[in-house]
Specification:
The chain has one domain: sialyltransferase cstii, chain A, CATH 3.90.1480. Helix content is 26%, strand content 16%. The chain has 8 helices and 12 strands. The strands form 3 sheets. It has an 8-stranded parallel β-sheet. A two-stranded antiparallel sheet has the order 1-2. A two-stranded antiparallel ribbon has the order 8-9. A hairpin with a 7-residue loop joins strand 8 and strand 9. The longest helix is centred in the last third of the chain and has 22 residues.
Length: 332
Amino acid sequence: MPRLALVPRLLRSRPLTKGLRYLYRYTRPRADRHNETLWPFVTVRRDGQGRLSGCDLHGVRGPATVPLDRLPRGIGGDAHLILSGPSVAQIDYDQCRMSTVMGVNGSIALRARHPALRFDYYAMLDAGFVKRRRDLVAQVLAQDLVLFVTPEVYRWIALLFDNRTVRCRIALFEEVHQRAQQRRARPEELAAQLGADPDLVLFDAHHPMHAHGFSLDAARGLFGGGTVAYTSLQFLAWLGARTVYLHGLDLTATAGPRFYESAGAQLPTALDRQYAGHIEPAFRQASQLLRARGIKVYNLSVLSRLGDDIFEKRHWSCLLAPAAQPLTSPEQ
């Protein structure tokens, strides 16, 4: 095997990456802890305004990326966010009328049953998913869409996939309160920085898990909400969606495995552990902000853990052509 071919294999070696992570963790301040998966493999680039514009990988060449501020925006109408809750399996996508569609993680598996389904946007922020479900990630990379990823996810895509198989456009993003290769901002610093910022709306800088807020300018960063669904909702608002339909936002592991998984073979999830203290409060405050800005959000999971007081619930049949819609509301 050529010497250079050994480099990617070495860089994805679990003992090496784990050892370097521990070295970083115990030689740097706690405020730098979120960067332990990037060092020493990634160097990020920023523009004159401090926004993340790209990153350089050491030892491997990644696919081309495009800065967020260069992406076309202006959805201007309806957008659909397809998540991974088991309720997604109940939706007949062959009959649904949808324009702009965004997926996350394993949403692409729906195309096995509904080949006509097309995604315009996609989001991944879990490197573990990239490593464990390469089959699904490969399908996403082969699509003509925009894929939003963190620098860590981007690194693993570069390590595990041939650049020649990547058809999508990749855009990097980061979280506001813990920017890549910068010290994590203290709550009082974050509150002072953002103040009355109209685009980075801070709800709670002192939340014990993550700062709560909502970004209307993805190029400047996003707020974590304990789930990729929250990240994706910020992307759609920034892209200009005026109405968002949430598919499969069940938000509970007790409902069963993700629609593309089988019982006993699920990837781990922190939904139940983070729901009450992190996920629900973030969505609740975001719903009020979006409502005030005239953005409508409908939850198509009638059994979702989120209540109607956060997002109005509708049955998926509302997406059917008028002539195909049932005369009475389906049983809930």
